[in-house]
Amino acid sequence: MSVTPVTLGEGRTPLLRAPRLSARLGVEVWLKLEGLNPTGSFKDRGMALAVTRAVEQGAPGVVCASTGNTAASAAAYAARAGIAAAIVVPAGAVAGAKLAQVRAVGARVVEVEGSFTDAYEASLALAEREGYAVVNSVNEDRIEGQRTAALEIVEELGGLPDALLLPYGGGGNTKAYARGFLEAAGRLPRLHPAEAERRADTFASAIRIVEPVHRAEVEDAVARSGGAVVSLSEERLERAWRALGAEEGVFCEPASAAGVAALERGVARAGERVVCVITGHGLKDADAVRRVAA
Using an 8 Å Cβ cutoff, are 45 and 77 in contact? Predict the structure, then answer.
């Protein structure tokens, strides 16, 4: 059946020049501010399409496993569509602000002991039992929606950047950007997904995923682009997070600074044009801010 698209006005986020970072690092730095999507993260692009498809297929609800941002987005778009949402999270591993977003729109929160992988397995069982659509990034509609950020970057810059740097948790966003760039330009910029060295317990909770679901696709896209995955210490992540605020006035959650932290590792050559994807707003993880901002 044909349904009205489920939307909260996602997309068309600013691409902001970062003059102080550019001057300090010797490259032309642009920041894609995905934290200005409706629920405060890049997840909204794909969730709008995934929930629309779920409604088209007659699903009574949606379910996802999440370290936070997917949870907030799925809950909001399900509420917008008038269907149920069940959010499965690893106990104690999700920022309180993100759980507040979930509860504020009436979604059901299911906590499980263990890691994101355990939560994901539980979400699949719940989906089978209740007939819900799974809206994690294994859902191709999520990737299709998220690829639009790459299309916007090419449009706004008038071509590809030399390099794209972004946080690396599950890897779905890297897969989506690669798809979008190939569609828009037929080739890839160098891709530099940036992960925490301490994936299991990093303070950057949005990328606290031990086993990336899209690891194979990320490795393939990175190899094709001539880029590299960058592993970051907690200290580097914190330093980049501070720099974004102090030098550019951009307030993001700690994981969102991963691309800037990778840039500070020297992955770009002098004079290159690079885009760092700032995936989530700082208010998504106010507890982390209190820990590191004193």
Answer: no
Query: What angle, rounded to 10 degrees, do the helices at 172-185 and 148-157 form?
Result: 50
CA angle 104, 45, 233 (to 5 degrees): 85
Residue 28: which H helix or E strand, with range? strand 28-33
In this structure, are residues 294 and 49 in contact, taking their beta carbons and an 8 Å threshold? no
By DSSP bridging, strand 133-134 and strand 163-167 are unpaired
**CA–CA separation, 167 vs 136, rounded Å?**
17
Count of positions (residues) in the chain: 294
Sign of the torsion angle spanned by Cα atoms 18, 42, 8, 288: negative
Residue given tokens 């994901």 in the structure block: 120
- Give 294's pLDDT tier (boundaries 50, 70, 90): low
**57, two tokens:** 């297929």
**Span 8-18, average pLDDT:** 98
User: Is 0.85 surpassed by the pTM of this model?
Assistant: yes
What is the DSSP pairing of strand 28-33 with strand 15-17? Answer: antiparallel
Give the Cα separation of 151 and 113 in Å (integer): 39
Burial class (CB in 10 A: 0-12, 13-18, 19+), 156: middle
Count the helix, strand and coil residues of the chain and give each as a percent rounded to the nearest 5. Answer: 50, 20, 35
Domains of the chain by start residue, with CATH: 15-42+141-292 (3.40.50.1100), 43-140 (3.40.50.1100)
